[in-house]
Design goal:
Strand order of the largest sheet: 2-3-4-5-7
Radius of gyration: 14 Å
CATH architecture: Alpha-Beta Barrel
Number of domains: 1
Largest sheet: 5 strands, mixed, barrel
Number of helices: 6
Distance between the termini: 24 Å
Shape: globular
CATH superfamily: Fe-S hydro-lyase, tartrate dehydratase beta-type, catalytic domain
Helix content: 10-25%
Number of strands: 8
CATH topology: fumarase
CATH class: Alpha Beta
Order of helices and strands: EHEHEHHEHEHEEE
Length: 171
């Protein structure tokens, strides 16, 4: 049986540096949720310096590529242009785990390594994830509805590390 690495947010550099492709992790604590409508907005605000005015600290954080709806949460494809192009900026701003599904490009895998960040895949099991979602709060752009930026508190979300240290399960 494979060992499961327990992680609690905010994550520290050492816990991320110890992860390798194929590791199974269990994530607890507060994480952020966003997808193609909101991630480019966050990146623009980080790059312009406006993000600091929001008072939302991304350091040691997890970003789950999902919308938050009354039905629950489930991963969307992380290789959508708007999502995958956010990895580098968000990693440099402190995000340590990008959580979603699907293959990402080799250059994205390399950019993760530069920031000591990883990409983890999570199965699309909305009902299970909903039972492990303890709290939810819209923290930015409420006008986007379920595609706004949310912060949720999770209890033991399990995922598999798909990209770390310049390597990827996708080749």
């Amino acid at each position: 049986m494979q060992k499961i690495t327990e992680l609690t947010t905010p994550l520290n550099e050492e816990s991320i540096a110890a992860l390798k492709v194929g590791d199974v992790v269990s994530i607890s604590g507060y994480i952020f949720c966003g997808r193609d409508a909101v991630l480019p907005r966050i990146c623009r605000e980080i790059e312009s310096g406006m993000w600091a005015k929001r008072g939302i600290d991304l350091r040691g954080g997890v970003i789950f590529h999902t919308a938050v709806s009354p039905a629950g949460v489930g991963p969307t494809s992380s290789n959508k242009l708007e999502i995958e192009s956010s990895f580098d900026t968000l990693s440099k701003a402190g995000i340590k785990i990008h959580l979603g599904k699907g293959a990402i490009k080799a250059e994205t895998v390399s950019s993760l390594e530069e920031s000591n960040a990883v990409f983890a895949v999570i199965p699309p099991v909305t009902a299970l994830l909903e039972s492990q979602t303890v709290e939810r709060e819209c923290v930015a752009w409420p006008e986007l509805g379920m595609e706004a930026l949310y912060r949720i508190k999770v209890d033991h979300y399990q995922a598999i590390i798909a990209a770390a240290k310049g390597e990827s399960i996708y080749g």
